[in-house]
Amino acid sequence: MPYYSEKLLDHFRNPRNFGEMKDPDGVGRAGNVVCGDVLELYIKVKDNVITNASFMTFGCAAALGTSSILTEMIKGKTIEEALEISNQTVAEQAGGLPPQKIHCSVLAEEGLKAAIDDYKKRQVEKVKK
Ligand code: FES
How many angstroms does the Cα of residue 104 sit away from the middle of ligand 1? Predict the structure, then answer.
């Protein structure tokens, strides 16, 4: 079996939605203390639906590819649906990952959860104002 699927390699070579987002509704950061790789995920939300997502990942091919796949997966999902996405789901969407690279997909799950947390905090702040 090849190390990475064609799909993951495609997302690594041609990342979708790469870059910082202007005026995001939520920003999530996740990092791996062992390898030092970092993901920053940005989401736009309207009527409880994620309408746009982008990311900046400084990391390995698996981290970059799964981050790109994640942004495609979450567009159009409600916040509740997005919260059900685990790193396993992302790894499956990536066509599988070698066992030693599964941890790389954890960045995607943690970044997503952090972005949603940030979105929820911002909503509470808006209500307080
Ligand atoms: Fe660091 Fe992949 S080696 S996330």
Answer: 5
pLDDT along the chain (129 residues), means of 10: 88 98 98 94 98 96 97 98 97 95 95 98 90
108 contacts: CB under 8 Å, gap ≥ 6 = 30, 39, 41, 63, 66, 67, 69, 70, 87, 90
pLDDT at residue number 26? 98
Q: Which atom of ligand 1 is nearest to the CA of 101?
A: 2
Closest C-alpha to ligand 1, atom 2: 104
Catalytic residue among 19, 20, 35, 120, which?
35
Report pLDDT for 24: 98
d(CA 82, CA 112): 8
100 C-alpha to center of ligand 1: Å? 9
- Measured in Å, residue 124 CA sits from the centre of ligand 1 at 33
What is the per-residue pLDDT for 129?
79
Give me 48's structure tokens.
């409880």
- Rounded to whole angstroms, the Cα distance separating 126 from 37 reads 32
